[in-house]
Specification:
The complex is a heterodimer. By secondary structure, chain A is of the alpha+beta class. Helices cover 41% and strands 19% of the residues of chain A. Chain A has 24 helices and 21 strands. In chain A, strands 2-1-7-8-9-5-6 form a 7-stranded mixed β-sheet. A 6-stranded mixed β-sheet of chain A has the order 13-14-15-11-12-21. The relative contact order of chain A is 0.11. Chain B is of the alpha/beta class. Chain B has a single domain, classed as P-loop containing nucleotide triphosphate hydrolases (Rossmann fold). The chains are: A alpha+beta, B alpha/beta.
């Protein structure tokens, strides 16, 4: 398997790429920095050099050179015996032979092949991190005590337990995926497990690695060890680090770190974060993020359990198109100046979305922004208390300014149907609340809530293909339907994927398929993968991306027929499964303000920025 | 004070109430201020539904309404439950501007929240003409008697020094919470309701209350709370 070839090449490696602003440094810079790294970090540098691979990426064209670099490494490796590659007309099928099919992803033979090469050198960072942790034993796991950080006083017990975890315990090390956020000065900002304070020296080590590599005009990207992948992401003054023992690829993990970064931006804006750190390099950003840890925790749980993030598409609830249209019409009629988006959500899935006309001409609402909004709603039970009015930044729409979000549940006390109205005017609360009243009235008149309550996600059995267990289908933009929000559809996960472990296992298989399809070195269009307990087929064309999961005994011919049937079914159900034609409205009575959503607020956000807090 | 308040289900959706009554319904804007985690949302939930739930940190600001009937008038409280988190401080003035009542809440078992409450009071005093706003100091979480760090006397003397009203409550047990709201209602009605144009009448389709907004200078800077 291709990924495994990579692993052989890179598994032990520190992957470094040059910063984009620099010209190519002389080759010896890298070598020097690496050997220096070795001298400082490794107990035995000579031995390490044999097993440590550095991937340098040329700056002029990082993606291209990445491909060449990786291809070289693939070419250099003897073809793996477990993999047979077949060329198909428009697709490349790589099929695992029977012996490979008896192995799960987690226990590939490549492990055995590379095990001999593996010295503990590859784990040097992990070892360093662990060492730093031992030194912290004295610090303990006391919660934060600074008087400025008053959050966490009244948090739920489950929340407390994560924060209070003993960072020296083995169980802490066993977590599937750690995420750390720190400032460039090495100040801890967030840790998924354990308190940031107890981890400050661990984060210090991380920052040391980052700045050491940086001093050689390079950027550290990742470190591979036998069990862990450490991925680094630098965004402005923030450094995000993921330590994962899931088998996700570096690209996927970096994508997840980017979501964490965006969620932080959504609360503070990129402009204020830059300003804060320009003025005070060692500012403790936890002051501003206090109380928001739960939002980041929630995001990371969603990233692990919800394929929307992997696919970068939103999941909308299947709804009879007549009902969806009537809901859109209700939203269209309840507008006010400076309102830019109206969104109806049920059970964390989109019901419908309508948007201001001129705004959508300038920029489209990105799925990632919708994910952040959905996470915000899901992570805060406080929303169930009443009406919420809060500033929120949509980082992909405009990372430097705030929208004002009005959030209210329409069906208390059940709280499943949620209305989200986004305005650019921070004073608009009463006007927007009035829109909600109109929407509520219209929905009562049309009995919409009880109709929505009956709506459920669908079962894969409705497709009528016996061997098909689950699928994810993501259509791409159709030219005549421009700037549509990218969506995907997927049935409920049913037996045998009903337990949390099995769901996760299936998602891990999908993540693996996704990484093969989107491999930078050798992207595939079609992949048929025989796993231990199921068979998967992923297919990407110019029109859609499809991941399917079949029972293990399906034949290739059967699977292909099944997919044809499935595609026919999706085509038939399209109107129900997707938001087909997003409705638009115009709130132009105040064109100076509404002409460019968000822009008008830029001035305000500067005035209202966080500088005054410093 | 012992008067039993009528329970109003789903406080935010009371639109049909009040109009049918012969008594006047006046709008009262009340804002809850204080550090994160002192129990502002829990107090608000008590005001609204008289129940207690462990809450998560508030995002931005939560808006609730609650109708209080006094003998000769009905007050419709529009309660702005602000987030205590520092990142929201820059927008908090949005919510407390034009408020008729402000509850500055601290946690009696956390001294720093008491210190913070004084900062909030200073901030409020900068913006308000005395007499236009009823400011109430509230020491919450008296159920944590064993961890008490701020005595009743301290709270009372701070209130006396600044000419504020003072109550200690427990949102967890519901102690003094309804009494507090009723007392605020009486006080607001006495002090502000009597003034010319002090309280506006609430109507079914009430729009933004521009009237009060104009009486204050627009904010130049948002927040000077941080050190």
């Amino acid at each position: 398997m291709e990924r495994d070839n990579h692993q052989e090449g890179e598994a032990q490696g520190v992957k470094i790429c040059d910063p984009p602003c620099e010209s190519n440094p002389p080759a010896d810079t890298l070598a020097t920095s690496l050997s220096l790294l070795g001298n400082h970090m490794f107990p035995d540098p000579v031995e390490r050099n044999n097993s440590t691979t550095v991937n340098k990426q040329e700056l002029s064209n990082p993606i291209l050179s990445d491909v060449t670099e990786e291809e070289k490494s693939v070419d250099a490796e003897p073809q793996s015996n477990q993999v047979t590659k077949l060329e198909a007309e428009e697709a490349e099928i790589s099929e695992c032979q029977n012996n490979a099919s008896s192995q799960t992803l987690d226990e590939g033979t490549e492990d055995a092949a590379t095990d001999n090469d593996r010295s503990d050198s590859g784990e040097f960072v992990v070892a360093m991190l662990a060492k730093a942790k031992l030194e912290e034993q004295g610090i303990g796991v006391k919660g934060r005590s600074s008087p400025l950080l008053e959050a966490g006083i009244q948090e739920s017990p489950a929340f407390m337990s994560h924060r209070d975890e003993d960072v020296t315990a083995e169980s802490w090390r066993q977590h599937r995926k750690h995420v750390f956020v720190l400032s460039e000065a090495g100040k801890p900002i967030y840790s998924r497990y354990g308190s940031e304070e107890a981890l400050s020296s661990t984060m210090g080590v991380m920052m040391a690695l980052v700045s050491f590599v940086q001093s050689g005009d390079n950027i550290i990207r990742s470190v591979y060890s036998a069990e862990h992948t450490v991925v680094f992401l630098q965004k402005g003054p923030l450094v995000l680090v993921c330590v994962s023992n899931s088998r996700q690829t570096e690209q996927q993990l970096r994508g997840e770190l980017l979501y964490v970064y965006y969620q932080i931006i959504s609360m503070l804006t990129q402009a204020s974060i830059s300003r804060i750190f320009e003025h005070k390099k060692n500012y403790d950003l936890r002051r501003l993020l206090a109380g928001s840890e739960k939002i980041l925790d929630g995001l990371l749980n969603l990233v692990d359990s919800d394929p929307s993030f992997l696919l970068a598409a939103v999941h909308c609830l299947p709804l009879a198109s007549s009902l969806r249209d009537s809901l859109s019409q209700i939203l269209l009629k309840a507008i006010t100046p400076n309102l830019v988006f109206s969104i109806l959500i049920a059970n964390n899935q989109l019901l419908t979305i309508v948007q201001e006309k001129t705004v959508i001409e300038d920029a489209r609402l990105e799925p990632a922004d919708v994910h952040l909004l959905l996470n915000l709603i899901g992570a805060s039970s406080a929303f169930q208390a009443g009406e919420i009015w809060t500033p929120i930044c949509l980082p992909l729409f405009n990372p430097d300014c705030y929208f004002y979000a009005y959030i209210s549940y329409l069906d208390p006390p059940e709280c499943t149907v949620c209305l989200l109205l986004l305005s650019t005017d921070k004073e608009a609360f009463y006007a927007v609340a009035e829109c909600k009243r109109k929407i509520e009235e219209a929905m009562t008149a049309q009995n919409s809530l009880s109709l929505i309550a009956k709506v459920q996600s669908y079962s894969v059995s409705q497709v009528g293909v016996s061997d098909l267990r689950h699928f994810m289908y993501k259509p791409f933009d159709v030219p005549d339907n421009y700037r549509q929000l990218t969506q995907f559809t997927s049935p409920e996960m049913e037996a045998p994927y009903s337990s949390e472990e099995e769901k996760m296992r299936l998602l891990d298989l999908y993540r693996y398929m996704h990484s093969r399809i989107h491999s930078t070195s050798r992207p595939l269009k079609l992949i048929y993968h025989v796993a231990e307990r199921e068979t998967l087929l992923a297919w990407v064309t110019s029109k859609f991306e499809l991941y399917t999961c079949f029972s293990p005994l399906v034949t290739k011919a059967c699977a292909i027929t099944a997919i044809t049937k499935l595609l026919r079914w999706i085509k038939k159900e399209e109107d129900r499964l997707f938001i087909r034609y997003p409705q638009k409205y115009s709130t132009t009575p105040n064109p100076s303000k509404s002409s460019r959503g968000g822009k008008s607020d830029q001035q305000d956000s500067t005035e209202n920025g966080f500088l005054s807090l410093l | 004070m012992g008067e039993k308040l009528p329970r109003v289900p789903g406080g935010a959706r009371l639109h049909s109430d009040g109009l049918s009554r012969p008594v006047q319904t006046l709008r009262v804007k009340m804002v809850l201020l204080g550090s994160s985690g002192v129990g502002k949302s829990s107090l608000a939930l008590r005001f609204d539904k008289d129940e207690f739930r462990s809450t998560t940190p508030t995002v931005g600001c939560a808006y609730l309404t609650r109708v209080v009937h006094l003998s000769d008038v009905t007050l419709r409280f529009e309660i702005w439950d602000t987030a205590g988190q520092e990142k929201y401080h820059s927008i908090t003035p949005l919510y407390y501007r034009g408020a008729h009542a402000a509850l500055v809440v601290y946690d009696v078992s956390q001294r720093e929240t008491f210190v913070r409450a004084q900062v909030w009071l200073k901030e409020l005093e900068k913006q308000y003409i005395p007499g236009s706003t009823v400011i109430w100091l509230v020491g919450n979480k008296v159920d944590r008697a064993q961890d008490r760090q701020v005595s009743v006397q301290e709270g009372q003397s701070l209130a006396n020094d600044r000419g504020l009203l003072f109550t200690e409550t427990s949102a967890l047990l519901g102690d003094q919470v309804c009494e507090l709201l009723l007392a605020v209602a009486h006080r607001v009605h006495e002090c502000i309701g009597a003034q010319q144009g002090g309280l506006s009448e609430w109507q079914e389709t009430a729009h933004v209350d521009l009237h009060r907004r104009d009486t204050f200078n627009p904010f130049v800077s948002c927040c000077k709370v941080g050190p």
